[in-house]
Design brief:
Helices cover 10% and strands 37% of the residues. It has 145 residues and is mainly β. It has an 8-stranded mixed sheet. A 3-stranded antiparallel sheet has the order 1-2-5, with no helix packed on it. The longest helix is centred in the first third of the chain and has 7 residues. It is globular. The N terminus is likely disordered.
Amino acid sequence: MSDKTNENGQAMTGGCLCGSVKFTATGVGGDHGVCHCGTCRKWSGGPTMAIHVDGMEFENEDNIKSYVSSDWAERGFCQNCGTHLFYRLRDGSMTVVWAGAFDKNDGFSLANEIYIDSKPAGYNFAGDHPRMTEYEFLKSLGMVE
């Protein structure tokens, strides 16, 4: 997933489907990445498209629930409508926001795909962009040698 800033260099807003949670994200990456891991596919019903952010501020944060989905990460969602909002490493070193949670999300381009070795055969994303296996991705985070 990309580390470029959005084209205006400004914060971007978003929220959940029912409007119970709103957020402002800063340092928004200019492109989205796609994750094909089994957890993301189970969580979202298909591949996850997400954008790196440097930080997030929430309105009505008490409506956010989080689910610890691994030893190293958690996923945040609206407790009222279930909208998936973010994935973050529990040590705070990385946060990504689901592309669909932004108010305006048509300016993002596909930057890369991760867990490509877990991708089902029934779909493919076109284009020439980096594709990493689970091992390659975890190695890039320093989680495996």
